[in-house]
Amino acid sequence: MPSAPAPRLAPLPAPVRPDPVRDRWTGQMRLAIAEAALATATGDVPVGALVLGPDGTVIGRGHNEREAVGDPTAHAEVVAIREAARAVGEWRLAGCTLIVTLEPCTMCAGAIVLSRIDRVVFGALDEKAGAAGSLFDVMRDRRLNHRPEVVHGVLADECGDQLRAFFDTQR
Ligand SMILES: [Zn+2]
């Protein structure tokens, strides 16, 4: 099967002190990491995402299934956003939070903006393709009319290790 190019990942240093901004999301990020693990069964790059409703409950989840379904748009975030929109019954996901193990790409950052999600929490940076500050900063571009809050670096080491372990098996 075709192997995807490895994203270049820059792990952040492990926090040495309590970090109220990031610590709040570690439980949900662990769920996203577990979701990401499901991707490898089909040879997909392990990226996992959750959408939390305004009350914090999970209303959408997805893992990268590009190889599984042969769909170039089947990134974890898009899969989770579609499920969340079905659950809510409309396309607007105002008040929702998206948790994802890897920095969103340009497509996913665009989908996040279009869905009106209020907050994005991600783990590892993707310096090669990331659109949340690495290569582009789509979600905080002041020319767009919706800009979610972005929290990065939640369990970044664990998220990055999961990806590195996958790409090590592909060599
Ligand atoms: Zn993407």
UniProtKB/TrEMBL annotation:
EC identifiers of the protein: 3.5.4.33
Catalytic reaction annotation: adenosine(34) in tRNA + H2O + H(+) = inosine(34) in tRNA + NH4(+)
Swiss-Prot/TrEMBL keywords: Hydrolase, Metal-binding, tRNA processing, Zinc
Residues annotated as the enzyme's active site: 77
Subunit structure: Homodimer.
InterPro entries documented for this protein: APOBEC/CMP_deaminase_Zn-bd, CMP_dCMP_dom, Cytidine_deaminase-like, tRNA_aden_deaminase
Gene name in the database record: tadA
Family of this protein: Belongs to the cytidine and deoxycytidylate deaminase family. ADAT2 subfamily.
CDD domains: nucleoside_deaminase
Cofactor comment: Binds 1 zinc ion per subunit.
Protein's organism: Kitasatospora paranensis
CMP/dCMP-type deaminase domain sequence ranges: 23-135
Binding, Zn(2+): 75, 105, 108
Stretch list, region Disordered: 1-21
Protein's name in the database: tRNA-specific adenosine deaminase
Purpose of the protein: Catalyzes the deamination of adenosine to inosine at the wobble position 34 of tRNA(Arg2).
Pfam family membership, one: dCMP_cyt_deam_1
Cofactor section: Zn(2+)
PROSITE patterns, A to Z: CYT_DCMP_DEAMINASES_1, CYT_DCMP_DEAMINASES_2
GO MF, one annotated term: tRNA-specific adenosine-34 deaminase activity
Biased composition (Pro residues): 1-18
